[in-house]
């Protein structure tokens, strides 16, 4: 809670009470010197209280947190009774939680998946009949061997598939490739915890091919480029890391694998057949020691295309409904 940007509001006898606040510790958040949220609507109907409000993405207020592209970790809490005053908001106790959401619209290439041409095939990397442990967080890894694709092919899209009802359980997925040759004898057939004594011979298998995090959608490569896979010298072994976020530590989550129609958590890769592709190869640039933000770069070009929101302090407004 400390360092959080907070809004507290309620409706009592038809009157809306609302304030922009900030948390300096584990106590009642103080009111901001500058009230940067504008209330558009507040109402209470039965058991539900609804607010609609608007604020600049970056208010240039050091008591606010700028709203940026990418996944945002949101905290929430509520009480069962109205506060006696703005300075007497009672502790919420266990009626609280967290959620990772995408506050801003995703880049255009991630908003939807266009209809696929007829000359493509699909690879799905699935978690097999997995019962998620009743732990707060779990990093689950499975290994995959690339099937024979008939020669060099090109990935043109990747997308997640999340089993209905489990959307809040998946925090992120990363499909890594093994940089060093891996033999059949070294290939693990059982899944394992990614960071709890993983097989040492898999330490070369932490090279990112594709990644997805909560809030992400479909990623389409530009029409004239594709990521090469299946050719001579291309990786043949992959590792799928799935991060399950289970703060309530429920034990009823089970992912069931059904070939071709699976609804398990996975990345799905769409690729062109070897003799159908006429565009450019792309490659990945990894900055620093830790993988943070992949950049796709077209051969023979001097610039890198990236999706950004052009924003300055107080420059762009975004409306959120709570």
Layout of strands and helices, then pairs:
Layout: E1 5-12, E2 15-22, E3 30-31, E4 38-45, E5 48-56, E6 71-77, E7 96-102, E8 120-124, E9 130-131, E10 137-145, E11 153-161, E12 170-177, E13 192-193, E14 207-213, E15 219-220, E16 225-229, E17 237-245, E18 254-255, E19 266-272, E20 280-285, E21 295-298, E22 317-321
Domain DOMON: 1-79
Family: Belongs to the copper type II ascorbate-dependent monooxygenase family.
GO cellular component, one term: secretory granule membrane
Features:
322 residues, mainly beta, Jelly Rolls, 2 domains, 7-stranded mixed beta sheet, 5-stranded antiparallel beta sheet, 41% strand, disordered C terminus
Query: Structural class, from helix and strand content?
Result: mainly beta
Pattern of helices and strands: EEEEEEEEEEEEEEEEEEEEEE
Number of domains: 2
CATH class division of the largest domain: Mainly Beta
Give start-end ranges of low-pLDDT stretches. Answer: 256-266, 288-311, 315-322
What do these coordinates show?
- InterPro entries: Cu2_ascorb_mOase_N, Cu2_ascorb_mOase_N_sf, DBH-like, DOH_DOMON, DOMON_domain, PHM/PNGase_F_dom_sf, Tbh/DBH.
- The protein has 322 residues and is mainly beta.
- It folds into 2 domains: 5-107 and 316-321, no CATH class; 108-298, Jelly Rolls, CATH 2.60.120.310.
- Helices cover 0% and strands 41% of the residues.
- Strands 8, 11, 15, 16, 19, 20 and 21 form a 7-stranded mixed sheet that branches. A 5-stranded antiparallel sheet has the order 13-10-17-12-14, with no helix packed on it. Strands 1-2-3 form a 3-stranded antiparallel sheet, with no helix packed on it.
- Strand 2 (15-22) and strand 3 (30-31) form a beta hairpin.
- It is elongated, with a radius of gyration of 23 Å.
- The model is unreliable at 256-266, 288-311 and 315-322 (pLDDT under 50).
């Amino acid at each position: 809670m400390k360092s959080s940007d907070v809004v507290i509001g309620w409706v009592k006898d038809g009157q809306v009470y609302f304030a922009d606040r900030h948390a300096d510790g584990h106590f009642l958040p103080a009111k901001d010197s500058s009230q940067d949220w504008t209330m558009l609507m507040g109402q209470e109907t039965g058991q539900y209280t609804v607010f609609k409000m608007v604020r600049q993405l970056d208010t240039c207020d050091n008591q606010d947190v700028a709203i940026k592209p990418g996944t945002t970790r949101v905290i929430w809490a509520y009480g069962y009774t109205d506060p006696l005053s703005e300075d007497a908001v009672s502790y919420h106790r266990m009626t609280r939680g967290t959620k990772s959401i995408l506050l801003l619209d995703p880049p255009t290439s991630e908003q939807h998946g266009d209809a696929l041409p007829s000359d493509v095939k699909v690879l799905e990397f699935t978690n097999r009949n997995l019962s998620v442990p009743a732990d707060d967080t779990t990093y689950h890894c499975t290994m995959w061997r690339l099937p024979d694709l008939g020669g060099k092919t090109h990935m043109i899209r990747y997308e997640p598939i999340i089993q209905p009802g489990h959307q809040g359980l998946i925090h992120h997925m990363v499909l890594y490739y093994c940089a060093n040759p891996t033999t059949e004898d070294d290939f693990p057939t059982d899944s394992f915890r990614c960071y709890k004594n993983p097989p040492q011979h898999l330490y070369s298998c932490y090279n990112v091919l594709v990644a997805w995090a909560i809030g992400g959608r479909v990623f389409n490569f530009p029409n004239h480029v594709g990521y090469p896979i299946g050719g001579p010298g291309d990786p043949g072994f992959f590792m799928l890391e799935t991060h399950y976020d289970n703060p309530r530590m429920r034990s009823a989550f089970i992912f069931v694998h059904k070939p071709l129609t699976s609804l398990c958590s996975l990345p799905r890769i769409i690729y062109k057949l070897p003799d159908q592709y006429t565009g450019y190869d792309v490659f990945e640039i990894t900055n620093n020691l830790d993988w943070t933000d992949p950049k796709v770069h077209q051969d023979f070009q001097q610039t890198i295309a990236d999706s950004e929101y052009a924003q300055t302090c107080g420059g762009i407004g975004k409306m959120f409904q709570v």
